[in-house]
Amino acid sequence: MPESDTVILDIDDEIATITIDRPDKLNALNVETLEALQTAIAEAEEADVRALVLTGAGEEAFIAGADISYMKDLGTPEAQAYAELGHDIARSLETFPAPSIAAVNGYAFGGGCELALACDLRVAAENAVFGQTEIDLGIVPGWGGTQRLPRLVNDEVARRLILFGDRIDATDAHEYGMVGEVVAHDQLDSRIDDLTADLAAQPKFAVAAAKEAINQSHETGLEAGLEYEQRVFSGLFGTHDQREGMDAFVNKRDPEFE
Ligand code: COA
């Protein structure tokens, strides 16, 4: 990828890890960083990886949000462009053709929380703090928080978080269903390694198909979603992994997926 001072893309063993590297600003996302992040996600997709991990550099922050110093003097057209850029990135995490995982290692506020919400899975370190804090700045979430948070947690929890801008710790975020698991800070990397190793051993096309079908459940009505599932399910028949998975079962051996 083109050199970026603030975004690191590392691809190892078919796993992409993107680190926002702006620790002196708690990994807040200015335009340059967002554009580099957009490029890094596209490159990870091009590399056909089996999982994508998003995390933040340093000990304190995942991503402390959109860059407030940049936003403070924007007018509506510029704010619209900034929102579109953030939305585009969130959507590319959501529709990434392999599972995306937010490794939340500290503050995840505003746009940082929203990018975590756009990932398939969220693993939080014990020191993580979450918040849709935009209301404190006189605005509302602008990178999908008003839409994705109520789909993930119960409606009242979403309303309270967005209306009051509460900052909640990892335990509460887990209790509300915002994160799948909480681990000790020094265990975060190894837990992510375990999860990505498990994903890398799964049948790749079935994992991608499962993700797409689950995404559809948020986008269409039940009937259309059920039809979509049938197409995805039947489309996997005849693939190497379907033949291999079922042959392995009937012959009582471990499958070897592509
Ligand atoms: N945008 C721009 N800069 C940010 C930022 C953001 N979202 N979050 C933190 N920073 C910068 C601070 O301005 C400071 O820069 P400076 O050293 O040049 O002054 C640096 O990061 C460290 O932050 P600081 O506030 O001094 O650290 P802290 O430990 O006292 O507080 C937070 C940490 C996360 C609680 C606090 O920075 C914060 O509330 N940030 C804003 C979070 C937010 O509202 N995000 C949503 C944006 S839509």
From TrEMBL:
Keywords: Lyase. One of its GO terms (molecular function) is hydro-lyase activity. It comes from Halobaculum gomorrense. It comes from the Archaea. InterPro entries: ClpP/crotonase-like_dom_sf, Enoyl-CoA_hyd/isom_CS, Enoyl-CoA_hydra/iso, Enoyl-CoA_hydra_C. This is Short chain enoyl-CoA hydratase. It holds the Pfam family ECH_1. One of its GO terms (biological process) is fatty acid beta-oxidation. Belongs to the enoyl-CoA hydratase/isomerase family.
